[in-house]
Structures are given as C-alpha cells and as structure tokens.
C-alpha cells in the first residue's frame, strides 16, 4: 500500500475527484486510487470509513484525512511540492487562489444543469442564468490568459492548481459545447489536450455505471460512444 491514497468517485461523473487526481498525476506523485461508485444504495456505507462528509474526493496520508478537493490540492502542494503548484508571485498567486475558490464555490446553475458526463456530446439551448455563468468562466479564462499566461498554455502560464480546479469545467464544456471566445476556447483545448485529462475522460467513458439523474438529460440521445 502506498503512503498516499486518494478516494474518488466514478470518473465519468465525479467532477471534484478529478482536481486532486490531476495534481498528483501532473507532479508524478505516487498514490493508490480507491474508487467508490456514487449514488448507489451502498455508497454511504463504503464512503463511511474514509469520508467524514460522505463525499469524494478524500486524501489519506498517514494519519491525516482531507476531504475537500481544494483543501486536498493545498495539502499536496504544501506537503509534497514545496509550494510550486501555485504561481510564484504574490499577485498571480492571489488571482489563482481567487479564481480557484470562485469555480469551487460559485456557478450553481452550471453545476446543476450540466453534470459531468464524459460520454455526453450535445449542444443544448441555455437559460439566461447558465449563459451568464458560462460567460463568467469565459471572462476568467480570457483575463488570466491575457494577464498571466505568457509562459505556457495554462491559466497562469505553467500548470497550477487553478488548472486542476477548472479541469472538470473543461470536461463539462467538452460535453455540452458552449460558445466561447477564441482565447477561452484555446485554453479549453489546452486542458483537453492534457494527457492526464484525456486519460481520466477515457477511463470515465469506459465505466459502465449509469446515474439516472444525469442520464435522463437529453444528452443521452447524443452520447458520443
Ligand atoms: N466541496 C467538495 C464537494 C464534493 C462533492 O460534492 N463530491 C461529489 C462528487 S463530485 C459527491 O461526493 N457526491 C456524493 C453525494 O453528494 O452524496 C469538494 O470539492 O471536494
């Protein structure tokens, strides 16, 4: 058994599980993956021994348990990466933390209307509220790329925790395909081209479990696979 264990949900559906998984993969940190199928009759029973909130992701490191995606990324950064997973300059780090916290805590309509589903590929009409939230994501991505992106293809140039937090949004946009500005679309492509994001999506597509509340969306008619 490895020193670090990451408890995650279905790769097809569990958006927040992707964030710390991607950070660990990008920095080549070895860990064991414990996968628990979500929203099944026995999910709470299986999560109970690991997760105080009965949600995923959860990181287990020696006697320490961390049960929130952003908190896990912070822990990995402090414990294993000497802080390099945030931008080095205080100004950039403050912006990176702000946009990460924003996607983590805001966007209620986006999260409710477009659940992650790696298998979905469809273009749907959007409500005004959803349109506004997509526009805000576009504005964040475009602003960060213009102001801070000169040293690479990611939000703050080189890869950072901010990209981990937006990776689920990229997978979601890949499924529901909203109109984006050119700058935002280029950033979306960079995230989708990331080999570990690709790996996660491929593994998600291979999963056989079906969540009725996600699959009842019109997207089921247009599954890519
Ligand atoms: N704030 C938490 C949210 C975690 C969360 O909502 N996880 C979902 C899967 S992506 C979950 O475990 N859902 C199970 C449930 O709600 O019963 C985080 O970012 O880690």
Topology of this structure?
Blueprint: E1 4-8, H1 15-26, E2 32-35, H2 43-47, E3 58-61, E4 64-66, H3 69-80, H4 90-105, H5 108-113, H6 128-148, H7 161-176, H8 182-193, H9 195-206, H10 212-215
Parallel strand pairs: 1-2
Antiparallel strand pairs: 1-3, 3-4
Bound molecules: glutathione (GSH).
Glutathione binds at residues 9, 14-17, 38, 55-57, 68-69.
- Amount of helix: 40-55%
Overall form: globular
CATH class of the largest domain: Mainly Alpha
Q: Report the count of strand segments.
A: 4
Q: What is the count of helical runs? A: 10
Report the uncertain regions. 219-225
Share of β-strand residues: 5-15%
Order of helices and strands: EHEHEEHHHHHHHH
- What CATH calls the topology of the largest domain is Glutathione S-transferase Yfyf (Class Pi), Chain A, domain 2
Structural class by SSE content: alpha+beta
What hetero molecules are bound to the protein chains?
glutathione
- The average pLDDT is 94
Largest sheet: 4 strands, mixed
Distance between the amino and carboxyl termini: 35 Å
CATH 2nd-level architecture of the largest domain: Up-down Bundle
Calculate Rg over CA atoms: 17 Å
Total individual domains? 2
Strand order of the largest sheet: 2-1-3-4
């Amino acid at each position: 058994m490895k020193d670090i264990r990451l408890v995650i949900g279905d790769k097809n559906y569990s958006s927040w599980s992707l964030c710390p998984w991607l950070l660990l993969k990008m920095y080549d940190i070895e860990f064991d993956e414990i996968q628990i199928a979500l929203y099944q009759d026995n999910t709470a029973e299986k999560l109970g021994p690991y997760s105080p909130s009965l949600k995923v992701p959860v990181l287990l490191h020696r006697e320490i348990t961390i049960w929130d995606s952003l908190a896990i990324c912070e822990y990995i950064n402090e414990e294993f990466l000497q802080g390099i997973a945030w931008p080095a300059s205080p100004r950039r780090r403050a912006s990176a933390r702000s946009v990460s916290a924003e996607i983590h805590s805001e966007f209620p309509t986006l999260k409710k209307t477009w659940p992650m589903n790696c298998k979905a590929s469809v273009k749907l009409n959007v409500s005004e509220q959803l349109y506004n939230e997509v526009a805000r994501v576009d504005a964040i991505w475009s602003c960060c790329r213009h102001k801070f992106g000169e040293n690479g293809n990611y939000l703050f140039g080189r890869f950072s925790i901010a990209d981990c937090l937006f990776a689920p949004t990229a997978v979601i946009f890949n499924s529901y395909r909203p109109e984006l500005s050119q700058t935002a679309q280029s950033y979306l492509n960079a995230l989708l081209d990331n080999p570990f994001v690709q790996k996660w999506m491929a593994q998600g597509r291979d999963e056989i479990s079906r969540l009725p509340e996600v699959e009842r969306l019109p997207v089921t008619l247009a599954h890519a696979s």
